[in-house]
Amino acid sequence: MIMSENTTPHQNLNLLTVVCITTLVQALASMIVILPATIAPELATAHGVDTSLIGVQVSFAYIGAMATSVLGGTIVRRFGPLRCSQIALAFAASGCALTAAPLLSAIAIGALLIGLGYGLTNPPAAHMLMKVTAPANRNLIFSIKQTGVPLGGIAAGLFAPTIAVEFGWQAALLAGATVTVTLMVLIQSLRPSWDQERDPDVEFTAAPLRDVRMVWAHRGLRLISLGSFAFSAMQVSLTTFAVTMLVTDVEFTLIEAGIVLAVLQVAGASGRVFWGWAADRLRDGNKVLTAITLITITAAMLTSFLNPQTPDLQVYAVLAMFGFTAVGWNGVYLAEVARLAPSHLIGSATGAALFVTFFGVVVGPAVFTAIYSGVGSYTTAFALASLVLVVGLVFVLLARKQN
Q1: How many whole angstroms separate alpha carbon 396 and alpha carbon 287?
Q2: Which CATH architecture best describes the domain 15-189+203-400?
Q3: Which residues in 8-46 are b (16+ Cβ under 10 Å) and which e?
Q4: Mean pLDDT of 381-400
Q5: CA distances from 151 to 52, 144, 327 (A)
């Protein structure tokens, strides 16, 4: 039997369990993606390369995410959302462990594996959340689940630098892989209830093109996805280069910079809940995305004024503001995708829409690295990179006409 993705709560599933598990899976996959960036100075020193090249590692990760995001809906239908989540965690853990090998090639291959896992986290989550939410609370619930991304960043920012300094950069990576494998094993008991509607006869052939064509043919989905390209480019640039910016331009220690990154991610987690609540309260996710974009541009401009003489409190405040919006948009975006998509293809539409989103992540760090190479300052690079958000705002406003 082919899965249906209902738009009303499913009586046989527990809302709290679904939210907790999907959030944990998202958190650990996100932690693994962000972890190398939090120890970038140590990683760069060990391999004898410039710290700005960490952006290339992130781009490799999201190339992998693009590859699997368009298959996510099909994998969910064939194997079930729980098994899809376990596959995601397995890829992420193996990639993180491989990154600990003392070879530059291992970092590239490990990043691809991490990305393959990350790209499989949202389709099963969207599938399950649509079963347990109603329109009145959907933005909030999706946003709560999306707090997994900044929560993963908090974990990486607080623990990875400390482990790297005390025990070495490889220990930080292996610790992340171990925790991820542990969750993959622990959630196995949920498979009978989560995966009972899986269809082993679903085929993979032509699925990626079919799902992408569906999103591209739907004007609302196409426009909101193009807007997410800009949002994701800025978000990943922030989470990737924040630590390096603080160490290089503001002269923080690695551990101090990791704490600031954790604060930024806490703000991002709070922002996801707040913006989701606001979208449900206003019944207008598009208006909330517009506000998020404008505030993010302002925060990026303020970042350009940070320097070694800037009071620590001001540094924390600016980056917290930046994180509140640049990391806080995803839940509202995914709820908009779910709302606009055909009800029986929400997982597929989510994966295909995220294909465009992840492309922004692939391009973002590479473009940011190029900007930094031109201006020689990470703080100035953030102000210049924010110009892409103006383009994203145009797409969001055009998508509003489809509401």
Answers
A1: 9
A2: Up-down Bundle (1.20)
A3: eeeeeeeeeebbebbbbbbbbbbbbbbbbbbbbbbbbee
A4: 88
A5: 24, 11, 11
